[in-house]
Specification:
single chain; about 325 residues; alpha/beta; 6-stranded mixed beta sheet; globular; binds iron/sulfur cluster
């Protein structure tokens, strides 16, 4: 599309760019600026990002691409006096959306019930866009998705109507290579999110429910506080689930765990965070990697399709062979 055709296509609509704190959405914003396209930038705060992402987003990235609106899901108040674990209570009091959502739903998000994406990102974005539309604006949602990132993305079009957002979605970088993303950062003197330099392949929840083995290991090696919070949250949700089961004369059938993507395992065989971290430090398990592609291809549907977070998760997860 020539620049003139592009401006005709945009036709005066306001571009709202989804910013994740990762390299692709940053590159997209820089590219829009190069094209001379005014745009607003929005970030979905799950409360579950890596501290380095918040620092980068609110510091260096904002200085380079301009102010970024932070959107957060709204939940009814929670009675914190009923929370016995200190880290969980502190997270709720601090307004941590992910922790509050898990307590409200009495479960962790999973591949099947991915309320992390839906409640923490999709709904806030829908509310934001609908407010803008109701105010009389016509909008386009720009997302930094590239076809080269995965087979699922390879089929994505540059422009697509989203019923959910009730606007057109534009993927300006759809044909870009990773090298082009790096080059536009260099052109503007913008360093990427420092997590990439520490070995992360994507930027998103810390950790994502689809985290790869190496990412679980990075979490265990660098962030004992987050591991401890997940540990407490697992205990809190398990305790509540057990109490509910016993109230109805039943026994708890499985413990609540942050990670649930276990190849060939039942819910009764899930591992809690501390055991996942131990497993992540082993060398076994890598050979199941290819088998996970199909299992996790659904990760490409929600968060990723609309550029809500970077969920490339083709890494290994525990199987019965890792017992
Ligand atoms: S990054 Fe992962 S955990 Fe976070 S909202 Fe997306 S799918 Fe859920």
């Amino acid at each position: 599309m020539t620049p003139e055709e592009l401006m005709n296509k945009i036709a005066g609509r306001r571009v709202i760019a989804s910013i994740s704190g990762g390299k692709d959405s940053a590159a997209m914003s820089l590219y829009l600026r190069e094209l001379g396209i005014e745009h607003d930038r929005v970030f979905f705060d799950t409360g579950w990002e890596h501290p380095a992402t918040y620092e980068y987003l609110r510091g260096e990235l904002t200085r380079e691409i301009g102010s970024i609106v932070e959107l957060q899901a709204k939940f009814p108040a929670i009675d914190t006096s009923a929370i016995t674990r200190p880290r969980v209570r502190a997270a709720v009091e601090a307004g941590n959306a992910m922790v509050i959502a898990c307590l409200q739903k009495a479960m962790f998000p999973s591949r099947v019930i991915r309320f992390c994406t839906q409640d923490l990102k999709v709904f806030p974005m829908q509310a934001y866009i609908s407010t803008r539309v109701e105010a009389g604006e016509e909008v386009i949602n720009a997302v930094g998705i590239r076809r080269a990132e995965s087979d699922a993305r390879a089929k994505m079009s540059e422009w697509e109507w989203s019923d959910g957002f009730d606007c057109e979605v534009w993927r300006p970088l759809v044909d870009w290579s990773e090298q082009e993303v790096i080059e536009i950062h260099a052109r503007h003197g913008l360093r990427p999110n420092p997590l990439y330099l520490q070995g992360a392949t994507r930027v998103g929840c810390w950790p994502c429910i689809f985290a790869r083995k190496a990412e679980v290991r990075m979490l265990g090696d660098t962030d004992e506080e987050r591991v401890a919070l997940i540990d407490e949250l697992e205990q809190e949700l398990t305790q509540r689930a057990r109490a509910r089961a016993e109230e109805s004369g039943a026994k708890l059938s499985f413990e609540r765990t942050w990670f649930q993507q276990f190849k060939g395992r039942s819910r009764e065989q899930l591992w809690p965070i501390r055991r996942m971290v131990e497993w992540s430090r082993t060398t076994r398990g890598g050979r199941v990697q290819d088998m996970q592609v199909a299992l996790f291809s659904q990760a490409d549907d929600g968060c990723m399709r609309w550029g809500l977070c970077e969920t490339i998760s083709l890494g290994s997860t525990p199987s019965s062979e890792d017992e």
